[in-house]
Amino acid sequence: MSLITNIEDLYFDEERKENKILFVDLSNTINRMGRFCYIEKVKIIDDVSMAIHEEINDICLYKANFLPGIIIVIKEKYDFSIKNCLKTTLNKFNFKFKSKNLKLFNYTIKELSIKNNKIKFDCLINEFVELIDVQTMINNSDFELVAHKYKNLKEDDSRINFEVLLRLNREDMALSDFLKLTTKFSLRKKLDLSVIKKIFSILNHSKVELKKINSCSINISPLSICDINFSSKIIRMANENNIPLSIICFEILETSKIENLSNAIININELRKHGCRIAIDDFGTGNSNIDYLSKIPFDILKIDGYFIKNGNYKENEFFLNFISNLSSKNDFKIVAEFIDSNEALEYISNINIHYAQGYYISSTENLNEFLVNN
């Protein structure tokens, strides 16, 4: 029996491409187990695979993480007796979950085909192909890191401030779509750690003196800051790469709410204790609001670019002055994004905003080249 965790192996198995391929869809059973119980779900798929293998000869079985079923390649000539035997095996299969003996619920058996090295038969497999694509991109760090420089408006400080942004090295997928897929397939935390690891490695191997950096800002999702092990992973990676955390700022994105506030605060406090700064990104839109600020310890507030770009700062003067006054009273710094003109720069320079960021200030540049040039 061949149980392969990466379905891409099937794409490159020339002998198998012409065989009959079936998919045993167990999603109805898997979904009934709830959002969590990942280990139990994997065990059911493993046990079903073993049961099929024991009953049916001359087959290869393929599975992969997050695929709610099993792909079966029939080695020899396919006939309906194989499908009937498969149904009999699945019908008599039972398993224990939460002290109850259960049977598979509404499983289905579907036929597949491989065309142009892609499995196609319905949206489920199309989603799975997307999953493999995203997993491969993360595992191979198949993305570029670029730096976007800040301008310090309040101090004559020669040290550099910049945000590290993600760019994809491909034309067939937009970054926004890629990020949505990482969330859809519960891979966002893995992406965050992969990006941080790559940034730390670049900083470690760069010829630039790290003392010349005031702030290297890195975006993280609320999912990461809620992971109770996040801060310990970051501290370990920083130590391994000789990175002083005093030059690192983590920007918490507003893509979703912080679901576990207590874990988030534990992580934030631990990171700040080691010198990190914490920024709230895109304030004023999405899930970032005043209530958010009252609960999350932070050092920097980034005003969403909507309030600045295309002359919008003129219409949002009350909001910008309110945040400026709030900063003066509560001792945090403000970054204004999307500065796109000299007029916008002059306006924010005259209120209590500390940093300016936007294409009028600086264009993005490959991170390695940015560190050399600055």
SSE blueprint and pairings:
Elements: E1 3-4, H1 8-11, E2 21-25, H2 27-32, H3 38-55, E3 59-62, E4 69-74, H4 80-92, E5 94-97, E6 100-103, E7 108-115, E8 118-120, H5 123-139, E9 143-152, E10 160-168, H6 175-184, H7 188-205, E11 213-220, H8 222-225, H9 230-240, E12 248-252, H10 261-273, E13 277-283, H11 290-295, E14 300-303, H12 317-330, E15 333-336, H13 342-349, E16 355-357, E17 365-366, H14 367-373
Parallel strand pairs: 1-3, 10-11, 11-12, 12-13, 13-14, 14-15, 15-16
Antiparallel strand pairs: 2-4, 2-7, 3-4, 5-6, 7-8, 9-10, 9-16, 9-17
Features:
6-stranded mixed sheet; 14 helices; single chain; 24% strand; TIM Barrel; alpha/beta; 374 residues; Alpha-Beta Plaits; 2 domains
Mean pLDDT: 84
What is the CATH first-level class name of the largest domain?
A: Alpha Beta
Stated plainly, the CATH topology of the largest domain is called TIM Barrel
Radius of gyration: 26 Å
Strand line-up of the largest beta sheet: 9-10-11-12-13-14-15-16
